[in-house]
Amino acid sequence: MTSAADPSHGAAVMPQRRPVVVGVDGAPESRFALTWAIEEAVRRKRPLHLLHAGAHPDDRRPEGAHVEDSDAVEPDPARTVLDAALARARAVAPRLEVTTQLTDESPAHALVSASRSAFSLVVGSRGRGALVGAVLGTTSAEVAATAACPVVVVRRLAEVEPERPSVVVGTDGSGLSTEAIGYAFALASLRGLPLTVVHACPARSSGSYVAPWLSDDPAAKVAQEQAVTAEEVAGWSGQYPDVRVRQHVLRADPVTALVDHSRGAELLVVGSRGFGGLSGRLVGSVSQGVLARAHCPVAVVRADTR
């Protein structure tokens, strides 16, 4: 089943079940995102929605040419990319319900709009944190910070190591990472993988945060950090008893710790409070650092998303 949105309106009628939405543009990174999205839709038993944004099909028609004059009209590259993505989805998962959308809206606006009716949003990443197509620079942060559903950024497909297959989630003990932990538990259960929970404590104090190793009682402070992490995990472990959990409270830079643990993993999950970076102490450049350097796809889950 396919349907294409009117480019002048930039919105397609979504299936009743919230779909996995993926942005496609024909670039290698976009193809990685498509592969991940197809597998996710199949596992979740949800429809797949293919979105190509920033297209201007009428701009390619020679002046004075009629639509029916096929010899005078160049093939629409945007439609070609979308059709190729549709063919790929059908070949990989013939029974998967797929819809398509071609819009001339900006990629960021189109992706965020689609996220309001989506289960999750999947985008490719080009270079250091740039999302598919024209979604470059600060727009990547805008999509991750304002989408109404979890956003999965695929810079590369995971190279899963046999001895280290897992889902990795970053936590900071602030309570804002609860949604990220829940998302990670659900995905680990779905894929039959263990979950690695990483709580990285920087060696330096910053603002109101006092590094455990610089406190009056370092041992007690570290034990407190470990207890907070265990408490965050305990509730979700009760809901997902099939998931084996490994917890690591580390003295390390959060970006470095998360990137290191992403090596060999299937997915890295981080929490986000929207504008302002990742939750708690994971702020500023950390979000971009993780997205740019992780060895596997990264899911950004905001505390206030559905």
Instruction: Tell me the number of strands.
Output: 11
Q: How large is the count of helical segments?
A: 8
H and E string:
EHEHEHEEHEEHEHEHEHE
Spell out the CATH superfamily of the largest domain.
HUPs
**What structural category characterises the helix and strand content?**
alpha/beta
In terms of quaternary structure, what is this? single chain
Mean pLDDT: 77
Low-confidence stretches: 1-11, 59-67, 127-138, 275-284
Could you give the distance between the termini?
Answer: 26 Å
In terms of DSSP E residues, the strand content is: 15-25%
Shape: elongated
Total of domains = 2
Overall CATH architecture of the largest domain: 3-Layer(aba) Sandwich
Explain how this protein is built:
The chain has 306 residues and is α/β, with parallel strands linked by helices. It folds into 2 domains: 20-154, Rossmann fold; 167-302, HUPs (Rossmann fold). It has helices spanning 28-44, 77-92, 107-115, 138-146, 178-191, 218-239, 254-262, 285-293, and strands spanning 20-23, 48-53, 98-103, 120-126, 130-131, 151-154, 167-170, 195-201, 245-251, 267-272, 298-302. Strands 1, 2, 3, 4, 5, 6, 7, 8, 9, 10 and 11 form an 11-stranded mixed sheet that branches. The two termini are 26 Å apart. Mean pLDDT is 77; it is low at 1-11, 59-67, 127-138 and 275-284.
